[in-house]
Design goal:
Blueprint lengths: L65 H29 L11 H4 L2 H4 L2 H4 L3 E4 L9 E8 L12 H7 L4 E11 L4 E10 L3 H7 L3 H5 L22 E7 L6 E9 L9 E2 H4 L7 H4 L2 H27 L2
Parallel strand pairs: 5-7
Antiparallel strand pairs: 1-2, 2-3, 3-4, 4-6, 5-6
Length: 312
């Protein structure tokens, strides 16, 4: 007997499977804001069809003929004609009288809440030359930044919330600034909507006056000069909806020492000549309106730059 004749033969490795099932694709990374921008909440891709229910088509021998070639060419010409006609219709519709064209950067502005860095939307330091009473210069320093939030009464005044909800209120960003003397505090807000250009133009016409005593909420900050800035400390405010941006900009100002104000005033009233009350004399109306105007300019510049970048 040969050595090892009675030992069992080693098992042969299994032959590799010719059609191993594909591994599942990795799950997509979650959006930093809890959803994928531009995709509705709850959206799911349809499941793939099972392999066993899929019928393999038989190969068809390619045949060419002069008649078939002519038919293909005719279809191509017809298709190009239809596409060209559709594009011409879009261009003509955009140029119809009374139908304003969308401003440059309008679409890009609607995405800035999740595309632009916080320091771009709310600079750490914001200069306001000529923004104070008597065209005095102002400099504001950012002291508080809130996370982006859904549109709700916690971050929006009641009247403004009711106004923008039908337009599609996307997101609200807020921050609080103080002036160079740390005697005033100003909470600013950027309300991003899905309004089209026509609706935005209508929205912005006399918005503050139409909303009445619709004072934006204050954003306080522990361990800052805005620690005591609450509803009772709000003194003056301004709300603006620029026609060329799908955004509403708000600002509410108050005293940094925590003093209360019984009757907050819109900025245009607080800035009126001849006013001698504390709110007017302190320039809190100028603060609210001045910082609003400068944030609008920053948004516009950022949105136009984003649109130009796409065309390069």
């Amino acid at each position: 007997m040969l050595p090892g004749a009675g030992a069992p033969a080693p098992a042969r490795p299994a032959a590799p499977t010719a059609f191993a099932p594909p591994s599942a694709p990795p799950a997509p990374a979650p959006s930093p804001y809890g959803r994928t921008p531009g995709r509705p909440t709850g959206y799911a891709l349809p499941p793939e069809a099972p392999v066993e229910t899929t019928t393999r088509l038989r190969p068809v021998r390619e045949r060419r003929s002069a008649g078939r070639t002519a038919a293909v060419a005719a279809c191509a010409v017809l298709g190009l004609g239809l596409i060209g006609g559709a594009l011409a219709g879009v261009w003509l519709a955009a140029s119809e009288p009374g139908r304003p064209a969308e401003p440059v950067g309008y679409a890009e502005a609607g995405d800035l809440w999740h595309n632009a860095p916080v320091d771009t939307l709310f600079p750490r330091t914001l200069a306001g030359p000529g923004a104070g009473p008597g065209a005095a210069a102002r400099t504001w320093t950012r002291i508080v930044v809130a996370p982006d939030a859904a549109c709700s009464p916690a971050v929006l005044a009641k009247g403004l919330l009711a106004t923008v909800e039908p337009l599609g209120c996307e997101r609200v960003l807020r921050a609080t600034y103080t002036d160079a003397t740390a005697s005033s505090v100003i909470t600013v807000g950027l309300v991003f909507t899905r309004a089209d250009a026509t609706a935005q133009r209508t929205l912005g016409q006399g918005l503050t006056a139409r909303l009445g005593q619709d004072v934006p909420p204050a954003l306080s900050g522990p361990s800052t000069v805005a620690a005591r800035f609450g509803d009772r400390q709000r003194a003056s405010w301004w709300t603006s909806a620029p026609a060329d941006l799908p955004v509403v900009v708000t600002a509410v100002s108050g005293f940094a020492d925590g003093r209360t104000v019984d009757a907050p005033q819109p900025a245009d009233r607080a800035m009126a000549k001849g006013r001698t009350d504390a709110v007017a004399q302190s320039g809190l109306g100028h603060e609210a309106r001045g910082i609003t105007e400068r944030l609008e300019r920053l948004l516009r510049t950022t949105a136009v730059a984003a649109a130009q970048e796409k065309t390069r």
